[in-house]
Amino acid sequence: MHGPVHLTAEVLSGSRSGAFTQLTLAAPGVGERFRPGSFLAVSVGEPGERTRLARRALWIHQVRPLGGHATSVSVLVDPVGPGTRWLASRARGDRLEITGPLGGRVFALPKEPVSTLVVGEGVHAAPLFALAERLRERDCPVHLLLAAPDEAHLLSALEARRTARSVTVATLDGSVGTRAPAADLLPDLLRRTGAAVVYAAGSTPLLHAVARAAEDHGAWSQTALTLPTPCGTGLCLGCPVPVVGEDGVARTARVCAEGPVLRGDRVRWDDLVGAESAPRTGTGEERG
Amino acid sequence: MSPTTPGTRVAGLHLAEPVMLAAGCAGTGREAAAYAPLSTYGAVVSRTITLDARAGSRAPRVLESPAGLLHATGLPNPGLTAFCATELPALVQAGARVVVSVAGATPEEITQVVRGLARTSGVSAVELHLCAPDAAEAGVLAPRDGAGVSEAVSAAAGVLPPGVPLLAKLAPVLAGVAEHARAAAGAGAAAVVVGGAQPALLPDGRPAGLSGPAVRPQALRAVHAAATALAGTGVDVVGCGGVTVAADARALLDAGAAVVQVGSALLSDPTSAARLVTDLRAGRAPDDHT
Ligand SMILES: Cc1cc2nc3c(=O)[nH]c(=O)nc-3n(C[C@H](O)[C@H](O)[C@H](O)COP(=O)(O)OP(=O)(O)OC[C@H]3O[C@@H](n4cnc5c(N)ncnc54)[C@H](O)[C@@H]3O)c2cc1C
Ligand SMILES: Cc1cc2nc3c(=O)[nH]c(=O)nc-3n(C[C@H](O)[C@H](O)[C@H](O)COP(=O)(O)O)c2cc1C
Ligand code: FES
Fold first, then answer.
1. Residue A262 to chain B, least CA–CA distance (Å)
2. Where does the record place the Dihydroorotate dehydrogenase catalytic domain (chain B) (predicted)?
3. Is residue B123 scored above 80 in pLDDT?
4. How far apart are CA A176 and CA B229, in angstroms?
5. Considering CB atoms only, which of B58, B69, B144 is closest to A287?
6. B170 vs A215, B175, B230, B233, CA distance in Å?
7. Which of B137, B212, B271 is closest, CB to CB, to A284?
8. Counting Cβ atoms within 10 Å, is residue A280 exposed (0-12), middle (13-18) or buried (19+)?
C-alpha cells in the first residue's frame, strides 16, 4: 500500500494534555501507511461552510490497533491560531477531512546500531516517540531532548523513558527541567552521547542549530521542517525550502513533497532565515 | 444537458470529460495522480513552463484569504528542456491528456517555447498564460490591451502544427475581457481560458492572484462576457475560477464555457475534481455536496 488517502475521519476522542489537545481519529488506510515523520493535512471548518482553504499540517503522533485490521491515528494540536484553535476544540463524534500520510521524505533510519540524539520542540516532539521506538527496534540507543517554552507545552516524556536511554528536558522558563534554550544544550549532549545521527523536529532556528551542531561533531542530522504547507500534498508549489542537491546545485524544494524531513546539511539555512524576514518590496507593477 | 454529458469538444479536441485540472494546481502531475488516475480528467494543464528554469518566488507563496487563496508563486518550473524530458512523459505515462501551459518574457521567447513543444510528442494543446498576477516578479508577459494579446497569441499560434490547438489564458478583469478574447481569437487562438486569478496583493505588498470560491461570481461574469464577445466565431471559452462542486461547473457551462478548469479546490481536497467529473456525469442535483 502506497500513497496518501483523502477521507473524512471520525474523531474517536479528544483530550487535553497541558496546552495541547490530542485527537484520536478513525482513519482507515492512514495508519497502515504511516512512517515516523509523515503528517496529515487537515481541513478547518465544517464542509460546505469552509472559508479557510489552506490546510493545516499535523504530525501523526501515534498509530494504534482499533480491532480487526483497523488502526486509529492520533495527532496533537497546539492552538496557536484560528485553524489550530478550531481543531483543538473538536470532540468525540466530530468529523475531520484529512489527507495522509503525507511527506515525500520521512526520518531515515540508520543501517547500523549507532547512538542517536532525538530533539523535539513543543508540539513538534509528536512524531519523535514513534521514531524512538523504531530506532530502539534497530538497537540504536536513543537519547531524547525535549524542549518547550514552559511545562504546558512540553510533551510528557513518561512513555519515552521506557524507550530512551536518557531523557533531557529543557524549558525556557525553568518550570521543569533545565532552564535553557535547547540549542545551548546540543554540543554537550552530542559529546556525551556520541550520537552519530541527530533527529530533530521544531522551529527553523532550532533545526538550524541542530544542523550546525551535528556538523561540528561529525554527525548526520535529519531535520523535520515546520514551515507553512498550504496544501500539504505537493500540488500548489507553495512551500519552498532552499536546498543543495546531491549534485551540489542550489535548488528550491517543496517542504511537503521533498520533505518534511531533510538532511540538515542539505538545507540552505541562511537563505531560509533570510527569506522569512525579507523586507517589504513595495507594490511593484500593477496589471490593469 | 448536452454540455455536461461525457465527451466534449473544445478547441477542436475531443475531451472525455468537461473538466480540466488548472495550471499550477496539480504539482508535477504525479502528486495529483495519487488520488485519481489522470485519465479521469478531460485534460491536465501542466504548471506554467518557461524557456529557462525558474526557482519561483520567496515564501510566502500561497496564503488563505476568506473563501479564497492568494498566490504569488513566481512560476517555479524546470524550464522547457527538462520539462519535456521528465515531467511531460510522466504526465502522459500517468494517462493524462496534457495541455502544456507556457509563458515568456517576450513574444520571441514565447515562440521559442512553443516551437520546442511543437516538436515534442504528448502535447495535446498549449495554453498561453497571459495573466500571471505576479507577472513582473515572474518575469513574463501579461499584456494589458488587445494589441498585446494579439502579438503574444500570434507568436505562439504561428508555430504550432495543425491539430495542436492554442488556448489563450486571459485575465478575468471585466474591463478588458471581451476585447482580449476577440484579439486572441483574431490572432489564432482556438479557445480562450477565462477566469484566472483576480489581481490582488499579498499582505507584504507583493502582487498576487486571488482564486477560489471568493472569485466565482467574477469568473462567471467574465466567462459570460467572453462567450458573448466570441459568439459565432467558433472559438471556445474555457471557464475557470472557484469551481468546487458540480453546481459551480454547471453555472460556468451555462454561461457559455465549453469546459471548466479546477484549481484551488484541489488544494483543499485533492479528490474534488474527480468527484466533480463523477457528479457531472451522473447529472446529480446541482447543489449536491456531501
Ligand atoms: C510538517 C508539519 C507538521 C506539523 N505538525 C504539527 C502538529 O503536530 N501539531 C501542531 O499543533 N502543529 C503542527 N504544525 C504547525 C501547524 O500546521 C500550524 O501551527 C498551523 O497550520 C497554524 O494554523 P492556524 O490557523 O492555527 O494559525 P495561523 O498562524 O493563523 O495560520 C495561518 C496560515 O499560515 C499557516 N501557518 C502559519 N504558521 C505556520 C507554521 N508554523 N507551520 C505551518 N503552517 C503555518 C497555516 O497553515 C495557515 O495557512 C505542523 C507544521 C508542519 C509544516
Ligand atoms: C497556488 C496556485 C498556483 C497557480 N499557478 C498557476 C500557473 O502556474 N499558471 C497559470 O496559468 N495559472 C496558475 N494558477 C491559476 C489557476 O490555474 C486558476 O486559473 C485560478 O486559480 C482560478 O481557478 P480556481 O479558482 O479554480 O483556483 C495558480 C493558482 C493557484 C491557486
Ligand atoms: S504545501 Fe502545497 S506544494 Fe507543499
1. 18
2. 8-280
3. yes
4. 70
5. B144
6. 50, 12, 14, 17
7. B137
8. exposed
- Each residue's pLDDT expressed in tens, for chain A with a length of 288 residues: 478 999 999 999 999 999 999 999 999 999 999 999 999 999 999 988 899 999 999 999 999 998 877 899 999 999 999 999 999 999 999 999 999 999 999 999 999 999 999 999 999 999 999 999 999 999 999 999 999 999 999 998 777 788 899 999 999 999 999 999 999 999 999 999 999 999 999 999 999 999 999 999 999 999 999 999 999 999 999 999 999 998 999 999 999 999 999 999 999 999 986 554 433 333 333 332
- What is d(CA B90, CA B43) in angstroms, rounded to the nearest whole number? 14
Confidence (pTM): 0.94
Phi, psi of A5 (to 5 degrees): -125, 155
Q: Which residues of B, range 216-255, sit inside 8 Å of A by Cβ?
A: none
Chain length of chain A: 288
Of A61, A80, A231, A272, the one to substitute when testing ligand 1's pocket (max ligand atoms within 8 A of C-beta) is A80
One-letter amino acid for residue A50 of the chain: R
Is B1 near chain A, with CB under 8 Å?
A: no
CB contact under 8 A, B204 and A281: yes
Tell me, what amino acid is at A77?
Answer: V
CA distances from B102 to B30, B67, B126, B248 (A): 19, 28, 7, 27
Name every chain A residue with its beta carbon within 8 A of the beta carbon of B31.
233-235, 257
CA pair distance B167, B188, nearest whole angstrom: 9
Of A4, A53, A276, which is closest to B64 when you measure between CB atoms?
A: A53
CB–CB of B271 and A6 under 8 A?
yes
8 A C-beta contact, residue B256 and residue B237: yes
Cβ atoms A23, A77 nearer than 8 A: yes
Give the pLDDT confidence score for residue A162 in this predicted structure.
Answer: 85
- Mean pLDDT value of segment B34-42: 97
Report the complex ipTM: 0.94
Greatest CA separation found in chain A? Answer: 64
Backbone φ, ψ for residue A109 (5° rounding)? -95, 145
A254 lines ligand 3 (CB under 6 A): yes
Name which residue sits closest to atom 3 of ligand 2, judged by CA: B24
**Interface contact B137, partner A, CB < 8 A:** yes
Torsion angle (degrees, nearest 10) of CA B265, B267, B268, B274: 50
Q: B133 CA distance to ligand 2 centroid (A)? A: 10
- Please check whether residue B56 is in contact with residue B76, taking contact to mean a CB–CB distance below 8 angstroms: yes
Q: A285, B207: Cβ pair inside 8 Å?
A: yes
Average pLDDT of span B82-109: 97
pLDDT score at A247: 92
